[in-house]
Prior knowledge:
single chain, alpha/beta, 6-stranded mixed sheet, 5-stranded antiparallel sheet, 33% helix, globular, disordered N terminus
Amino acid sequence: MAAASMLATLAACGGGGGDDGGDVSASADGENEASDIGITEDTIRLGSHYPLTGVAAPGYSEIPTGVEAYFDCVNQAGGIYDREIEWIYRDDAYNPTQTAQVVNQLVLEDEVFAIMGGLGTPTHSAVLEFLNAEGVPDMFVASGSLLWGTQPDEYPYTFGWQTDYMSEGKIIGQYIAENFPDANVGLFLQDDDFGEDGEAGLRQYLSDDQIVAVERYVPGNTNIGPQIAALQAAGADVVVGFTVPSYTALSQLAAAQLGFQPEQWFYSNVGSDPALVGRLLNNFSQGAVSDASLLAGAITTDYLPTVDETDNPWVNEFQRIWDECGGEGELTNYRIYGMAQAYTMVQALQAAGRNPTRDDFIEIVEQVGEDWQGPGLAPFRYSEESHLGISGMSLSRITPDGGAENLTPVLVTDVGDAPIEEYTGEEATPPADAIPEEEPAG
């Protein structure tokens, strides 16, 4: 079973958590204690599950390396209250049964303080009950399912992080209603909460008559030609895909083989990274399609800055972190995603104080998490009533060179019938060394 860990050596480089933090319920002064499972006097142990192998590995397997690089730089800068972050992640191959096995190992054998960034809707659903029953902070799930944020009474230890799929569907649906009012819309959806939540958001702005076909795929079944043919037969001239990257590539290849050319493709942020989709197109077509040119003109969503935004200060800082603390390969959008999640985790650990318990930690995120600023384009929604993460996104068109042309400002909303509004807040700028300096909230 594949596994990786990060145990970077502390260095006296300044920054990080500093020495002036405090316990949630006591003075900031004092000494480090082994305050709960996974926290010793010298370390905080965090764990996660990712598809390091299998159909979902392309792209997603890069996320934990971004986390690793960020935590490595934080450790070099002094860690969290002089504690080193130990980062352990294990391969679940995007298989829920394997997810349950590796998370059980992380919790019961590795004794992590928290799970952070567990990836995937079908996979993390398999461990949701277990983590909450064990009282393990289940932080910033790498999925936009409503499961992670809308039921804090039932799942008090679980928090989302990225924009949820229903809100994303609403934002895409409104754009279609305003810009393609007479279009016949076809949906190509992953057959789980990912697709279901996205569809629910779309249907708030698109009538049943306008949606002419809904086709679904099951991860692992790569023969999706019949579904794309059905969209074509239904006369869909706008197609919306809530797909992971492999199925974005497969849908484009199937459409090309059928001669299906809808007026407009839309893809969820989850499956629209041009660099990765281009590599997958080349792989799946055995070189017949060598890049992401098939994706040019598609419209997608963004809730983080992307690697092509070379003038963005967050991207510049993440590039520096990757150059200084990263491993092999280039900075990618998936590594930026991992670094951005790690940034939020450091904020949470700093805010929780010097010697938090797991319950202290959860309470602090509910109390102050909505005020945290960082790389995300829109605010968080954390509170006692909601564990949902980033509240909005913008729309952009993929250009032939793999870049993006902005189409809308950042739009914010919430689940249900909450309106969609333009976000008028100021964009956050990175702190020194891109390491937050959150004061203890207790």
